[in-house]
Amino acid sequence: MNDQPIDAVDGVQLLRSYLLHCRYVRRGLQRVARELRERADAHDDSKLLADEFAGFSRINKAAREHPYGSPEYRAGLKQEKPTINLHYSRNSHHPEFYGTDDKANTDDSLVSIETGRFLADRMTWLDLMEMVCDWRGAYLGYGSQGTWDENMARQRTRYQGWFRPEQWWLIDQLAEFVKVVA
User: Per-domain residue ranges for the chain?
Assistant: First the structure.
């Protein structure tokens, strides 16, 4: 360490630069926090709209009465495919929001899934954050079976080919971060 005295002008300039730096960092972090608060407050509000509410009431009943992933559960969801797709079209935290590159739907499953053909690479990092929190909320709220890590492995299988490696990196980081949320 250098024991030379500091010049008063240099010290004042350092404090000025430091305070400006902290102000700009604080403004940036506050903007991120504000956007996340807004997303948290508005998450899935479209389920309360008339054209989604009845369908999600039936989906909720299927989830209460049948184990997650069971044939009965999937049949209940399949009947509500139009409601689910409408919901996806309104909420950017679902990869399905961004559609497919050819709009063809040859899949007969729960949603219009064509692995690797969705444009989920257009999701923002804020969308990804909300998506992982949504997965965690569903895992905790609907009595999913197995551990969180097993649930994430199922999500990785379901969405294989949908996300770029850097998106998976962020998804994995977020999944580990929210693991402690109960």
Answer: 11-42, 43-91, 98-182
